[in-house]
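go over this record:
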Amino acid sequence: MEELLGTRSGLSAWKREVLRNSRGRKPRRDFLKALALSLTALAAPNKAADAGRSQRHKEGETGGPQDKPASGESPKTVTTGTFFFPRLLFHVKDETGDQWNIYPVADVVLRKRLKALTNINASEEPVVVRLDDLDTICRYPFVFATSEGYFDLPKNEEVNLREFLMRGGFVYADDCVLGKTGDRFFKDYRKMIDKLFEKEQMAMQRVPNDHEIYRCYFQFPDGAPFLQGVNHGGYALFEKGTGRIMTYLTPGDLHCGWTCLWNTAESNEAALRMGINIVIYYLTH
């Protein structure tokens, strides 16, 4: 398929295929419930959403399928039933040390743990996507973004990000945390999303601790794990009408935990498991 976010029905079909390929040796009870419900719910295409979808923007260059962007084109198709975990390239304006591409090894570890603990057909191919190329980013419905600094997006990239989320795309954003106590990225991401959806009177809200994202696979009764930074709790933008999370934001440097290089083994494992929950939540909604 050329573009997974071309229609909601196409996105639903891809999610069903990814979930079908999950062959857990000892499936968790909650996951099986979510899987059964999702395959039923995703079977019905959202015609209203398809009808209201805006025209795609066609501008900019693509990022290559590697840890650092390249001049070559991204693949023109994405394998049906394969889950990719791309990294978002964006401009960090205060030039802090940890930019958008910090510690790609963390993504590698998460992808491997996702396959090991769920057997979801997760590609281990590293992919970089850019918001100035809407067609390419729409081939990868789930995108990860991180940094420790303040950032801003050009107007065309803000428009594309809004369009990506409106079509059913999902961004998981995590603050890399400046100096173990900062929350620059968290503040700017939340401010940007609130601005982009101001017309709809939608704003990011703290996710309650009993929300499904904290119990769809592993259990987090106290909400999102926290490694360092400012413990604001997990925030999300909720879709009007459905309550579906469109983008999810954490302040606690979970990505750092995925590296398994610092922190305690217990904290690192919690960070990895929360990353898996976020993926499972997206695939089942």
